[in-house]
Design a protein that fits this description.
The chain is mostly helical. Helices cover 56% and strands 0% of the residues. It has 8 helices and no strands.
């Protein structure tokens, strides 16, 4: 009984101490941005990618999601800028991606020079595709290509995530989002019958 009573008297001070600790900003994170203001890339933290790396990222993004008759390419909707912001962000979760992406871009550039004698961005589409085909499946690559394949898988995820969260990307997959409807149509009769709900 005495222990329970003692814990009740100590608990409020511990809760206050913890709440103050959690409210203090972490070093390097700064404060929240103003949500009513528009920001340009690099306004919140310095960007990581150099101009040659941005060029390589642009070409690689467009190899992953090229323009077609329905939708623009990944670079046309700003995916390279999204990736630069992502790998530049000062958060713990982004630090691993920054290292993986920078190492991967270095590898892909060196491999393009080794295979084709030119930068990846200057290689032909067939050459770029053949290089990426070699690292596009993490489960089937040779042991020496495991790390480049890991990079390519993550880069492909970042490209897709950046693309399909834009209005153009959402339109491409037919996502309408949370929009008001004048009427709410019933499910098709054949579906209702198939589910046994008729």
């Amino acid at each position: 009984m005495l222990t329970a009573y003692a814990s009740l008297t100590v608990a409020p001070s511990l809760l206050r101490a913890n709440s103050v600790t959690h409210l203090a900003p972490r070093p390097g994170y700064g404060t929240d941005p103003l949500l009513t203001k528009s920001y340009n890339p690099g306004d919140l933290w310095p960007l990581t990618l150099s101009e040659p790396q941005r060029r390589l990222v642009t070409v690689l993004c467009d190899l992953i999601i090229p323009a077609d008759d329905r939708s623009p390419s990944a670079s046309a909707v700003g995916v390279p800028a999204f990736i630069d912001e992502w790998v530049s962000a000062p958060y713990d979760a982004n630090a691993h991606d920054r290292e993986l992406v920078l190492e991967g871009l270095t590898w892909i550039e060196a491999e393009s020079q080794r295979r084709f004698g030119k930068p990846f961005a200057d290689a032909s589409e067939a050459q770029r595709t053949s290089l990426c085909d070699d690292i596009s499946n993490r489960d089937r690559v040779a042991a020496e290509l495991k790390k480049p394949a890991q990079f390519f898988a993550r880069f492909r995820d970042l490209t897709s995530g950046g693309y399909y969260t834009t209005p153009e990307g959402m339109k491409d997959v037919g996502y309408t989002g949370n929009v008001p409807l004048a009427v709410f149509p019933a499910p098709p009769a054949e579906l209702v019958a198939k589910l046994g709900l008729a």
